[in-house]
Amino acid sequence: MAVGVMNIEEGVSFPAKITFQVILSCIIAAVGGLMFGYDIGISGGVTSMDTFLIDFFPHVYEKKHRTLENNYCKFDDQLLQLFTSSLYLAGIFASFVASHVSKAYGRKPTIMLASIFFLLGAILNLSARDLGMLIGGRILLGCGIGFGNQTVPLFISEMAPVKIRGGLSVMFQFLITIGILAASYVNYLTSTLKNGWRYSLGGAAVPALILLIGSFFIHETPTSLIERGKEDKGKQVLRKIRGVEDIELEFNEIKHATELSKKVRSPFKELFTKRENRPPLICGTLLQFFQQFTGINVVMFYAPVLFQTMGSGNNASLISTVVTNGVNALATIISIFLVDIGGRKCFLIEGASQMFVTQMTIGGILHAHLKLVGPITGHSVPLIVLILICVYVSGFAWSWGPLGWLVPSEIYSLEVRNAGYFCAVAMNMVCTFVVGQFFLSALCRFRSYLFYFFGTMNIIMGLFVLFFLPETKGVPIEEMADRRWKKHRFWNRYFKD
């Protein structure tokens, strides 16, 4: 199927077809999102399982079943939260290492390493006999997540033709949602089994094996090949993935960018000291900051815990989580098909507005009906909260979920792309660690008011997108500065020299 990749506004065309090689490579690489999603979805369900708590956190198990225990504080335990959050501390370090490995050796071997780390972490968690082995496994999983999240979105952005770059990049987030959904279903099936938590944690080996085997069948990106001096191979791969002979214009564009990139000895120094790199640096890192403080990982990590806090039984809470995660996956499909039509900004603004309304409403309902001790008042309240959470999740799934990864992968020039994207991924990991480590403690102290905080954050980030983020739809990555940043009414001041 031929696609003339034409931006009418700018009058520049990169001839391309939607080829099988591009689709296959992007889907296989996006399995890195499946690994990430499985881990996000599995941890909350496992931490709510009685068998897991008895084996590793017996004091939390006792507190969970006390009748007069504060509803908001039943799971408040720093070590229990460290089980979830330790992965993201490891991910920060790993993504930094991956930024150098990806630049020096290519995107493909970095993706392979991601799958190997994740596989080893799954095996260690499966066989864990004590808390040390459990945390050690989480650290290895974090290395896999750091390598994968640093490299996969860049790989997809560099492989995809401009016209469908958004849709293919959203595949990463879509497979995150599939991983979350699969994990919640696995938790539901294993929750009543003896040592069911082992099967849940060990299941992480499945997406790791899929990515490891699949990575042998993907191409290296033309940009990485040309950047590392393999111009003939880069031209060959570019011709193959575009499905046309006339690739000179795109090849020359990439080659020009790589020549500029080679002049930069220290990408991180260049990123932080050169004025024209500040707009994408600020926007890329703030998008990841805002993505985590939408409150989404409150739902993804701790949905079973949250539903149990409201008085749902263990099975009911896990079923509610499966429903929520199913909505998450379905809503992401909308973004795949519409993000290259409607653009990035309108989805981000609409999603922030939708999440603001639902967070504020959930906070109000919990404030009115969930007291410090005793069951929630009103039999229909858990169902209403479930519906509101589904509406909230759908707003995230077609906006800040996929676009929080897509936009930072589009906006950096090649010479600082790995360094810039590392800053975005590191911000994601830091914020995810903060939410994972401290949410249950914050829930204990601030109770329903915590949802008002996340609601307010959604208003702030919607305004940020409205006034400061340029539209990146339909713009070749290597021309983002000329076409967007230099023409933005606020950021153009950084390019006047």
Automatic annotation (TrEMBL):
It is found in: Membrane. Signal peptide: none annotated. CDD domains: MFS_STP. GO terms for cellular component: membrane. Residues 25-473 form the Major facilitator superfamily (MFS) profile domain. It is a multi-pass membrane protein. PANTHER family: SOLUTE CARRIER FAMILY 2, FACILITATED GLUCOSE TRANSPORTER (PTHR23500), SUGAR TRANSPORT PROTEIN 2 (PTHR23500:SF511). Belongs to the major facilitator superfamily. Sugar transporter (TC 2.A.1.1) family. This is Sugar transport protein 2. It comes from Cardamine amara subsp. amara.
